[in-house]
Amino acid sequence: MVETNDCVKLLARREVIRVMGGGMLLLVGGDVLTGCGSGNSTAAIVPPGNGALQYNITWPSRAVAKKGRLVPVATQSIQVNVMQGGQPAVSPQISTPPRSGNTTSLTFEPIPVGQVTVTATAYSTVDGTGTALATQTGTANINSGQTTNYSLDMAS
Fold it and tell me: Which residue of 2, 35, 133, 144 shows the fewest CB atoms closer than 10 Å?
């Protein structure tokens, strides 16, 4: 079993990685090393010079509609865009309410190191189109080899 610190050392040497089902598969000079990570991690593993952004969404309860929620109750999807230097840093992603619980996460990777602008827009359709119910923009710093956890307050 490869220890987590060994995985970090391998990443520092710019080995090729691929995250699979919470675990990690490393391809090192034709050899396959498995077992990096705890298997419970949701954090992305990214090569040096890049980072990742994990965007966390807390959805309102469908049973209790309260005024002033962070995410409007009528929201059926949220599209998240990550921009850097006025250009898309990665492809936009769309999240829909979870079948159980009230949180979802989107992971964007790889993102070059530096500041990014994150825009989340709530829609009443499941495909992230139509009239926006709410939108919010903020900034985050992306660090080499790290995942930045981030969430935005949605204003309607």
Answer: 144
Q: Token pair of 93, please?
A: 């992603």
Q: State both tokens at 19.
A: 């995250």
pTM: 0.67
Per-residue pLDDT reduced to its tens digit, 125-144: 999 999 999 999 999 999 99
- Quickly list DSSP for the chain: ---HHHHHHHHHTT-EEEEETTEEEEEETTEEEEEES-S---S----TTEEEEEEEEEPPPSS---TT-SS-TT--EEEEEEEETTEESS--EEE---SSSSEEEEEEEEEESEEEEEEEEEESSTTS-SSEEEEEEEEEEE-TT-EEEE----B-
